[in-house]
Amino acid sequence: MKVFGFAGYSGAGKTTLLEALIPRFVAAGLRVSLLKHAHHHFDIDRPGKDSYRLREAGCGEVLLVSGQRWALMHELRDAPEPTFEEQIARFSDCDLVLVEGFKHMPVPKLEVHRPSVGKPLIATDENEHIVAVATDEPEVVVKLTRRPVLPLNNPAAIAEFILQHQGFV
């Protein structure tokens, strides 16, 4: 499995870009999975549902299964968060694992940057894992980095760049 990441501050448009890229990767014949890091408490289960109640009662894991999908919820219960490598290893075999977040993991990644968000560029000389920057203001960002700068509003060009970078074309 090849791994490619997306980094950027909240509000930059990482998820929106991924929504536009994933169908292009699938159309290219790739099996794609995604790992998204959440920096805050989250719950995919709803209070009052049986699975929620049983997990809250103390189950370490709850596996929900239907004819369309399955989901495994694992409670850490004060255990440390699994390492990045442990998380990637949980995926079924696929061609490409996309990673949203994990800014400092040593995997190739694209920075999604909007100057209007008011945050600094992550693609500095010290962060060699960022291989390109996608932005809505290329004329501003090109002056700040030596990385390739891609137009954020052109997901086809971004997809092509990633496919080439990962060796799929």
TrEMBL record:
Domain Molybdopterin-guanine dinucleotide biosynthesis protein B (MobB): start-end pairs: 3-136
Any GO BP: Mo-molybdopterin cofactor biosynthetic process
GO molecular function: GTP binding
UniProt cross-references to InterPro entries, sorted A to Z: MGD_biosynthesis_adapter, MobB_dom, P-loop_NTPase
This protein's name: Molybdopterin-guanine dinucleotide biosynthesis protein B
Organism encoding this protein: Rugosibacter aromaticivorans
Organism taxonomic ancestry: Bacteria, Pseudomonadati, Pseudomonadota, Betaproteobacteria, Nitrosomonadales
